[in-house]
């Protein structure tokens, strides 16, 4: 396994630190992130890079592959991570120009966290919709630790149950988002039989989601064994191209999202999916996808957290699509 060198303390002429991970180098200037590796280099707009990096760190490398774009990204092996350039790019692969290092998840997370901390300026929130945040561009200008250190909502059983992650309200600092002012905020009445007060529970799911201050950040609002309901509010575009290692179900709860669906390995186009309120889709286990939400919308992502799944799909013991029509 390649060694992770501690990040250097050298500050570049734009005021930012430069970082090394194995043989990868990371540098930023006023507009771009620059990634280098033996035999290649890559440039990404810094807003796009920081939004992708934020998700990769906050989600602990997520399920399967987090493509920052068509070239750079990570694949989660749940303990180790492949950090790659061109690994899932048909053109790079055809010319044998791809590069990958397998590193320990802890090391990669620590280094990515340090990059995120140093390169995120005051006023820029990588989780916010573009209309709700300041600029990431320019010379080094302070930090935004509260934005990048938000803890992800992960309910043990269900949001709002005793001892579990709390409901949201004005008083708890979660106002209704500007685009969800029309959402009814009344809560259901629950009349439990004596003795079952901690077992019977309900809350206004739309009201809860209307108070999310982040975009493209599924949170676990209920868990039944491996079945995780992960709703999220979306605006602008998913900052990563997610390569699935299992099937994911999407339920479009409000408004609409347009999805580009590509082959997971090569990036070759496979489908366009326009999801409107009420639509349900099963995203196959052998694709990558990226969504575009023209206005803030609500999406329910249903994940199966069974750790046996990636291998079952990789060995073709399960079909990549869960339903045949
Ligand atoms: C996904 O890759 O399936 C995904 C990720 C983040 C979201 C929604 C969907 O907010
Ligand atoms: Fe996905």
Structure, described:
Helix content is 15%, strand content 31%. The protein has six helices and 16 strands. A hairpin with a 5-residue loop joins strand 13 and strand 14. Helix 1 (46-58) crosses helix 3 (105-119). The longest helix has 15 residues, at 105-119. The N and C termini lie far apart (44 Å). The model has no long low-confidence stretch (mean pLDDT 96). It binds P-hydroxybenzoic acid (PHB) and fe (iii) ion.
Summarize the structure.
Helix content is 15%, strand content 31%.
Features:
alpha+beta; 325 residues; binds P-hydroxybenzoic acid; 6 helices; four-stranded antiparallel beta sheet; binds fe (iii) ion; twelve-stranded antiparallel beta sheet
Question: What's the arrangement of secondary structure elements?
Answer:
Layout: E1 19-21, E2 24-28, E3 32-37, E4 40-45, H1 46-58, E5 65-67, E6 72-76, E7 80-85, H2 90-94, E8 99-104, H3 105-119, H4 145-148, H5 205-210, E9 222-224, E10 227-237, E11 241-243, E12 248-252, E13 256-263, E14 269-276, E15 280-283, E16 287-304, H6 309-314
Antiparallel strand pairs: 1-2, 2-3, 3-4, 5-6, 5-11, 6-7, 7-8, 9-10, 10-16, 11-16, 12-15, 12-16, 13-14, 13-16
Helix pairs in contact: 1-3
Bound molecules: P-hydroxybenzoic acid (PHB) and fe (iii) ion.
């Amino acid at each position: 396994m390649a060694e992770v060198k501690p990040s250097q303390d050298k500050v570049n002429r734009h005021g930012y630190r430069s970082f090394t991970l194995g043989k990868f180098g990371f540098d930023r200037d006023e507009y771009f992130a620059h990634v280098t590796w033996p035999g290649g280099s890559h440039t990404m707009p810094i807003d796009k890079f920081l939004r992708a990096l934020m998700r990769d760190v906050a989600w602990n490398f997520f399920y399967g592959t987090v493509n920052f774009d068509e070239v750079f990204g990570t694949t989660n092996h749940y303990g180790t991570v492949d950090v790659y350039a061109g690994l899932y790019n048909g053109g790079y692969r055809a010319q044998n120009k791809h590069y990958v290092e397998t590193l320990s998840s802890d090391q990669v997370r620590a280094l990515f966290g340090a990059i995120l901390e140093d390169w995120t300026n005051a006023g820029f929130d990588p989780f916010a919709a573009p209309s709700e945040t300041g600029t990431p561009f320019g010379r080094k200008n302070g930090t935004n630790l509260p934005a990048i250190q938000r803890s992800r909502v992960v309910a043990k059983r269900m949001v709002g149950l005793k001892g579990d992650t709390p409901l949201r309200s004005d008083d708890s600092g979660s106002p209704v988002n500007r685009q969800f002012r029309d959402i009814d905020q009344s809560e259901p009445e629950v009349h439990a039989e004596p003795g079952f007060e901690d077992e019977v529970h309900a809350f206004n799911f739309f009201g809860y989601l209307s108070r999310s201050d982040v975009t493209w950040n599924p949170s676990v609002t209920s868990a039944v064994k491996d079945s995780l309901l992960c709703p999220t509010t979306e605006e602008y575009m998913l900052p990563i191209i997610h390569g699935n290692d299992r099937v994911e179900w999407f339920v479009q709860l409000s408004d609409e999202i347009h999805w580009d669906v590509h082959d997971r390995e090569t990036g070759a186009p496979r489908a366009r999916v326009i999801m409107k309120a009420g639509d349900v889709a099963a995203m196959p286990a052998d694709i990558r996808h990226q969504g575009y939400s023209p206005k803030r919308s609500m999406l329910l992502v249903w994940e199966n957290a069974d750790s046996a799944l990636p291998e079952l799909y990789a060995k073709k013991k399960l079909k990549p699509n869960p339903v045949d029509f």
